[in-house]
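Tutorial handout. Part one gives the primary structure; part two gives the three-dimensional structure as tokens.
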Amino acid sequence: MRRIAVLVAGLLLYGSAAAQISLEWPADVLVGMTDTAAYFPLLRGQRVAVLANQTSVAEMPGVQGVTGEPVPTDAAGRVHLVDLLHDSGFDLRAIFSPEHGFRGTADAGEKVASSTDARTGVPIRSLYDGRTQRPSDEVMRSFDVLVVDMQDVGLRFYTYYISMLRMMEACAEFERCVVVLDRPNPNGDKVEGPLLDMTYKSGVGALPIPVLHGLTMGEIARMSVGEGWTRPCDLTVVPCRNYTHDTEYVLPVAPSPNLPTQRAVYLYAALCPFEGTVVSLGRGTDTPFEIYGHPDLQNCDFSFTPRPAAGAKHPPLEGRLCWGEDLSRMPLAEARATGFSLKYVIDAYTDLGLGEAFFTPMFEKLVGVGWIREMILDGATDAEIRTRWEPEAEAFRTLRAKYLLYE
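Part two.
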């Protein structure tokens, strides 16, 4: 029999007295990884694998391994999940890595070879080596429980949730348990954009959800099982503590090479559709997803030249002087409120005057439907496009409500 569980430790801490105190002194958000009392018992005596990357870290002052020695930390004092589990004496059999690799340095979609973690000696099995959609049967039989811990950013075309779903499917087939250590959604409860037309299902869109879905990784896992989008598996979610979907959560670690700032995370929904056009959104510069431009854009004072860089070995329009817009000084509150806006795409489309040649087939995979391109070609405004997708976004808000773990 399959089960879906949500573990919350220390419920007595959330009584009325504690709630009154928190209004005056808000507690720091504690990610699921820090709640070891909730998930360590699930791992004892089991062969453990993790789906993790550079974001699988947390501040855990004074945490010690089984030898009594402190678990090593990074320069910012954060402990990595792999080091925590290894030094706590768990039988760690494999590390599965998503897009960008275990260290989070590879380009978008770049093939990453499997390797070995230098400190622990645990094999790193890449899910982005160009061949592996899911691990081999032999690898699946090598562990009993999979621990998932990665920082998502709350968008349908951000791929970490897709790697999680593929691993959940494999775990369901082999009757392996899945434990998701939850992390906040930096875009909160924002639900915007059309639902994915599954005709355009791809590596950047796997579920019939809006562009901004307002879910954490744990909530996506629960909803995918509950709605039958994935096979039911033995799923446990360890929630964050001191968190609601209204909490403004600043990411402590860049989730991927081209989202290096909080502003880029907020503007990602509005600028990523440029990946399906001839326009550069700043890959190969110091401010990716905070600027955009093209050599032929007119009446612009701002310019940049994309060049090879970490996480962008061969960026679009490499070496060409691009004219465009600089959003890197936009106040964070304004960037956070931008959401899934097509204003910038429409402005660039109108300025360039290329018609259909402005778009590539990737555009539909990102926005999720065919009619947005058609509306832009017909001269529609961002507000008119928003009016069309808002009813299905509202229906999704209602549907997702029963899967939410946070207010």
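Part three, for discussion. Residues 262-398 form one domain. The chain has two domains: 4-254, 262-398.
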